[in-house]
Write a structure and sequence with these properties.
By secondary structure, the protein is α/β, with parallel strands linked by helices. It has a single domain, classed as Rossmann fold, CATH 3.40.50. Helices cover 34% and strands 14% of the residues. Helix 11 links the parallel strand 7 and strand 8. It is globular and about 50 Å long.
Length: 361
């Protein structure tokens, strides 16, 4: 049986992985966009920009790239577990200018400077994206890129708002072991599945115990797994040497009820029972006017590449790209974001990220 300590390690691992994309955001003073201003909420820090959703919650966001009114392509970036709107998407500025790309990052409910959503669900994640796009008037069609656990929101967009999508990409997307279409023999011996099952049980039945457990000082810290080859390949470990700490997952931060509740709720939606099976979705672009992509590291030790290959294989309309020596932090690899933009916006195929035939079985 998997120990409770393993659950804590996995939670710390996921948070650390997603925080790895959180290098300092682009310098807005050097951007072609004007400086952002407060939305008038006196209780909110100056410089933070938010919209008020129809249910009364506030959603914080930031913009970069070319000015919205001059953009040819508008992309919403969805961050993952433990991350925020300040995550970096490392696209070269020259390419952003050449393609005319406007980027919109936002704090998902309960993260960063956005209000929590006690009714968080798969559908609410998609509707938050849709309402954000509408209030900021970015147009009837927009692109969505989901990173890691933030990809469950992009799956939800495919199900609930496919008519709003100009294209979609998922980077090292989370896999839910409860999807009905995944064969049991593919996941039966996967230790990650057992850990997730136990963590869901604790979160649902004993949330106070779980809260106490993850905030105890005697538990292993993130440093225990920070460079552990059991979780990261060599390229990931090199990246982990260059990033800052993980403030959201410190013992003091986890003691805050709002932080714990956000992480717990996000985890439960991502890995709980879904109201739809992604492998039953239909192609939102039957006329091939746009495309859907999955980017995966072959050596990813958080999300198994063999499951991603199975998922994409069941949906031939999804373009599957594989980084042969990639781990879970591929979004941070040099050149990858450039390749993602070219594939998503221009339809260009990069042979470096084509899976080997023997990897597709």
């Amino acid at each position: 049986m998997v120990s409770c300590a393993a659950i804590v390690l996995l939670i710390g691992l996921l948070g650390m992985v997603y925080q790895a994309t959180q290098l300092p955001p682009p310098n807005l003073k050097d951007s072609s966009l004007p400086l952002l201003h407060d939305d008038g909420d006196d209780d909110f820090p100056l410089g933070s920009t938010r919209i008020r959703l129809s249910d009364g919650r506030y959603l914080a966001y930031r913009e970069w790239g070319v000015p919205k009114d001059k953009a040819k392509h508008k992309i919403i970036i969805v961050h993952g577990f433990g991350s925020s709107k300040d995550m970096n998407f490392l696209a070269p500025q020259e390419l952003v200018d050449e393609l005319g790309v406007y980027f919109l990052h936002y704090d998902r409910a309960g993260y960063g400077e956005s209000d929590p959503n006690p009714k968080r669900s798969l559908k609410s994640e998609a509707l938050d994206i849709e309402e954000l796009a509408d209030q900021l008037q970015i147009g009837s069609k927009f692109y969505v890129i989901g990173v890691s656990m933030g990809s469950y929101a992009t799956w939800s967009c495919l199900n609930y708002i496919p008519n709003r999508l100009a294209g979609l990409a998922m980077i090292a997307p989370v896999v839910n072991y409860q999807w009905p279409s995944i064969p049991k023999n593919l996941i039966r011996d996967d230790y990650r599945r057992r850990i997730i099952q136990l963590s869901l049980c604790l979160a649902k039945c004993c949330p106070r115990l779980l809260h106490w457990w993850v905030s105890q000082k005697w538990l292993p810290s993130n440093s225990v797994i920070e460079k552990n080859p059991a979780f990261f390949n060599n390229r990931d470990i090199d990246i982990l040497k260059t990033i800052p700490g993980f403030p959201m997952l410190t013992k003091d931060k986890l003691k805050e009820q709002v932080v714990f509740d956000t992480l717990k709720g996000d985890w439960m939606v991502a890995f709980g029972k879904w109201e739809f099976d992604p492998m039953n979705l239909t192609n939102p672009f039957p006329q091939n006017k746009s495309s859907v992509h999955i980017w995966q590291g072959y050596e990813d030790k958080v999300v198994p590449s063999k499951i991603q290959r199975f998922v994409s294989g069941k949906m031939p309309w999804i373009n599957y790209h594989e980084v042969s020596d990639g781990g879970h932090l591929i979004v941070h690899y040099s050149g990858l974001c450039e390749a993602i933009l070219k594939a998503l916006l221009l339809g260009e195929e990069n042979l470096l990220y084509r899976p080997r035939p023997e990897n597709l079985s």
